[in-house]
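Table S2 (continued). Query chain:
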Amino acid sequence: MPKEKPRVNIGEVIKTYRSQRGLSQGDIERRTGLLRCYLSRVENGHTVPSLETLAKIAEAMDISLADFFRDGNAARSRNSENARELSQDEIRFLVEIKRYSSTLSTATSGLCLP
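Corresponding output:
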């Protein structure tokens, strides 16, 4: 099965938010501890950051992690009753799931799945 092409170019989104806030890659480096050359590789599409890294970048820019994944329609419906921001607890929970999900396997877990 072919991989589905991602709908969000996360590097472009990061660069756009960073520019809108008047921040340099060096500013993000100082706020996150991530190397500027790494940030450049992310922004230019050569590297895809982990969810945990995205959370660090979002926090450094004072935005929600969910903002990175909004498309034009989602951004317009931001104030609708169905749209809401992720809380910091929800973000931490998702980061933890991401961290441990790579070690899980349905074949070895002993769980019965429907």
